[in-house]
Amino acid sequence: MMGMFISFLGTLPMGTLNISAMQISVTDGIRPAILFSIGALLVEMIYVRVTLVAMGWFRKHRKLLMGMEWFTLVIILALAATSFYTATHASVKTNPILSNTIHRFWLGAGMSAVNPLQIPFWFGWSTVLTGRGVLVRNGNNYIFYVAGIGIGTFIGHCLFIFGGILLVQELDAKQDMIQWVLGFVFLATGLVQVVKMLRHKDAISEMK
Q1: How many structural domains is the chain composed of?
Q2: From CA 146, how far away is CA 46, in angstroms rounded?
Q3: What's the whole-number average pLDDT of the chain?
C-alpha cells in the first residue's frame, strides 16, 4: 500500500513518461497511451525489484547511470523540438517520435529503461521504509511492494492520459495549441534537468 501511495505521488510531477503518455492520448487515443504506460511501469517494477537486491552494483556503475541520464535528456529535448515542429507544420498531425511504427508498449518500456532517475529514487524510499520496519525483507513483501508501485504509477499516468483528452476538449481539438503547450512542458522539464545535472543536484549525483 505504501509503495502504491509513493509511486502515485512520484508520478504527479511533470516528467518525460507522464507527459509522453498524455501526448499519445491526445494524438493517438487512450488505448495506445495505456499500452505505453503499461510498458513503462513494468520496466519500473523490474528496476525496483533489482534495486532491492543489487544496489551495490548500481553504486559502482554511477557513470553508466549518468550516461543514461544524459541520453534521457536528449530524448526530452527531442520531444520538445518535435512538438514545436508539429505545432508549426499544419501537414504534420502527430509527434514523429511518439507516433511512429514502434508499438506503444515497447516505446514505453524503452523510454522507461533509459530513465535512470527511478533507480536512486526507489532505493532511497526502500531504504527508508526498511529502516522504519514498513518494508520487511522477504519475498512476499517485495512482491506486494513492487505490485503496489506498478498500480500507483498506472493510476498517476491515467490522470495524465485522461487529462490529455480533457485538454483536447477544452481547447476544442486545436492540435497546434496543444502541441505548443506540450512542447513548452518538455522544454521546461529538460531545462530543469540540465540545471540539476550541472549543479550535481540530481538524484544520481547524490547517490552515496
Answers
A1: 1
A2: 8
A3: 77
